[in-house]
Amino acid sequence: MATESSEGEEEGKITGGNLVLALDDDLREMGKKAVWSVSSCKTGNGVSSLRDDNLDTYWQSDGAQPHLVNVQFQKKVRLQMVALYVDFKLDESYTPSKISIRAGDGFHNLKEIKTVELVKPAGWIPISLSGNDPRETFVNTFMLQIAVLSNHLNGRDTHVRQIKVYGPRPNPFPHQPFQFTSTEFITYSCVR
Amino acid sequence: MEAILVDSVQNSLRHFMYRNAIFMCERLCAEFPSEVNLQLLAGCYLHNNQAYCAYHVLKGTQMPQSRYLFAISCFQMDLLKEAESALCSANEPGAEVPNGAAGHYLLGLIYRYTDRKRGAIHHFKQALSADPLLWAAYEELCALGSAEEAAAVFGEAAAVCIHKQYLPNGFSPQNSDMSSEDQNLNSARRSMDDVSPRQLKQMLGNNARDVAGSYHGTTASSRGSGQPLNGGSSQLSLYNTPSPVATQLSGAAPPPPCRNLQPNGPNLSTLGADSSPRSTVNSTIQAPRRKFVDEGKLRKISGRLFSDSGLRRSTRLAGEAATNATTIATSVAGNGASNSSKYLGSSKPSSVALRAVSIRKGHSWASENSDEGVRNEVTDDSRFNPTLANCSCPSGDNRTFDQDGASMPVAGPVLTSAKVLTGTAEVLGLLRLFGEAYRLSCMYRCQDALDIYSRLPHRHYNTGWVLSQVGKAYFELVDYMEADQAFNLARRTSPYSLEGMDIYSTVLYHLKEDMKLSYLAQELIATDRLAPQSWCAMGNCYSLQKDHETALKNFQRAVQQDSKFAYAHTLCGHEYVSLEDYENGIRCYQTALRVDARHYNAWYGLGMVYLRQEKFEFSEHHFHMAFEINPCSSVIMSYLGIALHALKRSEEALMMMERAILADRKNPLPMYQKANILMSLEMLDEALEVLEELKEYAPRESSVYALMGKIYKSQNMHAQAMLHFGLALDLKPSATDVATIKAEMEKLHIPDEIEDFL
């Protein structure tokens, strides 16, 4: 299980999962501004099932591994976290086991930024994209690719029920060097 | 049979049994088709919220009252052009507006919603001078930003106007005042022709009792509008009399009967003798019906303070003063001719009111008519003929009573006139307070407005309306805690009232009280699902939880409920901007401004959008417009400063920040922005000073420390910089800022390490 990792990335084993995705207040979902595509899918279980906010519908791949989910943005965005909903109890051999996340400008220059290994996950799996360096809290990119490298019990195809991509909230008040934290500042900083 | 049907209809209307009223009225119109009956039918439909029915019933009618009802139906169906042409047709530019003050008010609203601000202002002013108790018109003037001071509007002229409605002869010492009130009077001049709805109502009411006789007589000689009936005609003509008279009333100056009397001087005198028998026969039938229908309309249009009491009073007065009027009239006969010209310009309001009162006098008309007939020659303006003719009489009366002041020259109505005086004074005093406070709060001079509200007597202060206005004033002053309290009290006093609750939801949004806000929203929706305020509150609730899409849906529902509710549009705009959909945001803000050009929130919103899009010129312009409307808001001032700074006009920016700091000591933001500007101007020491001061005001704001750290770093004071960056991090800034600050800290380390190595 050699993992290719660029400097600063680590391989991690993640067990379990959360039923409810707990988010920081300063994260917001960025997927709506992106174009989503998959490498292959079975009829009726296409890419729309990944984004329908319905945990009963899932995407089922239908080809050779690795299975890819591509998220392409119109402009460079800062991303901080990817969250996947997978369930071993429901999907067994379809549950992804090794996942690689790549980023880049397009299909030609994707570079892996994170690898995780899941062990019998059940629920939301948050994957942080930050590096160790505080300067690398966010990944600034045009495209993100989530690759399912292998499944549990060596299954060929994979089921993923939902994927969400998160980035930081922009400063609600333009032209400020820093965001405000105290209530006095926030109260006085806008007219509603 | 007709009388019975009419009675039944009116009875049903009185008891709010609209289906019955409509049915009976339709039978009435089928049996006796006449325009008057059509008016009654339209009235029934309007009561039952079926404006479209009224529209079709009244289409093409010409009588002033019909035109007025038609205009109301058009207005409710949003057919503003038709409504306008009904009220003042383009072919007759000089024609009078039906129903006086109410007609002007409706016209004003139409002009306002069709974006003709000056026309709207003109009409509202006329409405007010015709009926000084038409508070709604004053409210609209304040909203348009061009209201005069309340003391002037609800002052002497208004008192005179009201007096005239109640007392046949102007006894109050108006003459001396009138010259001083010339301005008001001159503006009221033209409007005096319009009947104040109240006067109209009262007159109608009185007509029911005693005036009928003269009434009928006058119709014959009426200004030519309506049917020219001659007195002495059969029952049919008598039956018709009230309506034409009524229409006269609506179309003409305050006392239509009076007006009719004017030109009919000679006629009246002949008819006067006959008046009494006729009145008893017909007035009772006709007048109540007209009175009721008009009352209904008038009540709907403007809050009536005196509606019931006035009616009773006027009848009483009419009864009592009947005899007096005669004597008074004759006494001033001599003065009339000489005085009339002098009072032509100034005494119109008083004369008009007097006329109205005199109408009620019924029998007195007979004697007065001759006098008025004489006076007629004095007047030159044919249009204002009746008014002037009346004027001359009242002015004469005023003269004689000048010295008397409050006392009536006639013994009979002394008590009532005193009561009227005190009553008027009280009402006007109250309205002056309310008007001034409302005007100031519309000009956003909120502290002054609050002072005035606090001077109201407790029983008025503790009503929902006042408390929510107080809350609104605190909201504009950015004092959200006080606003919360005031609105809370308002909710407790009148839990059913939705007025101002959208502002309350915004206050709670600012205070981040999500529980209270959601409770408020639920309560409002339960009270009234169809009110825009409820949906605004709901939307604010979702917006507080950062669910901007649902919030947007709720605000759009609010817009659907009432597209003339500017704040709902602005809130939609805010949500679009949070979703980064700037085009739609701009569109929403512009819609809000179309509805209400003085809605400074929308100007501010547009400025913010352009600031984000880096179109600084536009941004500065829009912030400037917002600032002009609301020059007391420190938030707007600080944003204007930011825009100016972005345009590189830094001195102006700094001045604006200074003003913002002075305007509201509790607002820490202008100081922060000032430091920002100073830093970009490389005036680092001054910037640090400001930030040190700011630390006192807002000790737990991480951005202050972060900025200080940055400044120290640029001054190469690394220890201080590290200290402040550390403090900033301790205060838990957002992830972006954490990254930025840590990055800065890393950069600080390197010089230290190099020193270590050396």
Automatic annotation (TrEMBL), chain A:
The record ties this protein, via CDD domains, to:
APC10 (cd08366)
What SMART domains does the record point to? Answer: APC10
* Ranges where the DOC domain occurs: 6-192
Question: What's any one GO cellular component for it?
Answer: anaphase-promoting complex
Q: Which UniProt keywords apply?
A: Cell cycle, Cell division, Mitosis, Ubl conjugation pathway
Q: Name one Pfam family in it.
A: ANAPC10
Q: SUPFAM superfamilies, from UniProt?
A: Galactose-binding domain-like (SSF49785)
What biological processes does GO assign it? Answer: anaphase-promoting complex-dependent catabolic process; cell division; protein K11-linked ubiquitination
PANTHER family in the cross-refs: ANAPHASE-PROMOTING COMPLEX 10, ANAPHASE-PROMOTING COMPLEX SUBUNIT 10
Its biological function? Answer: Component of the anaphase promoting complex/cyclosome (APC/C), a cell cycle-regulated E3 ubiquitin-protein ligase complex that controls progression through mitosis and the G1 phase of the cell cycle.
From the Swiss-Prot or TrEMBL record, give the protein name.
Answer: Anaphase-promoting complex subunit 10
Q: Which organism is it from?
A: Rhodamnia argentea
Automatic annotation (TrEMBL), chain B:
Q: Which GO terms describe its biological process?
A: anaphase-promoting complex-dependent catabolic process; cell division; metaphase/anaphase transition of mitotic cell cycle; protein ubiquitination
The segments labelled Disordered in the record are 171-196, 210-284
Q: Name one GO cellular component term.
A: cytoplasm
Biased region (Polar residues) positions are 171-189, 216-250, 261-284
Alphabetical UniProt keywords = Cell cycle, Cell division, Mitosis, Nucleus, Repeat, TPR repeat
Matching Pfam families, A to Z? ANAPC3 (PF12895), TPR_1 (PF00515), TPR_11 (PF13414), TPR_19 (PF14559), TPR_8 (PF13181)
Q: What is the annotated localization of this protein?
A: Nucleus
Query: Where are the TPR-type repeats located?
Result: 101-134, 532-565, 566-599, 600-633, 702-735
Asked if the Swiss-Prot or TrEMBL record annotates the protein with the keyword Heme, the reply is no
Q: Which SMART domains match?
A: TPR (SM00028)
> Entry's PROSITE patterns?
TPR (PS50005)
| Keyword Nucleus on entry | yes
Q: Which Gene3D superfamilies match?
A: Tetratricopeptide repeat domain
Stored InterPro entries: TPR-like_helical_dom_sf (IPR011990), TPR_rpt (IPR019734)
Its principal location?
Answer: nucleus
Q: Which family does it belong to?
A: Belongs to the APC3/CDC27 family.
The identity of this protein, by name, is Cell division cycle protein 27 homolog B-like isoform X1
Source organism of the structure: Rhodamnia argentea
Q: What is the lineage of its organism?
A: Eukaryota, Viridiplantae, Streptophyta, Embryophyta, Tracheophyta
Corresponding gene? LOC115740648
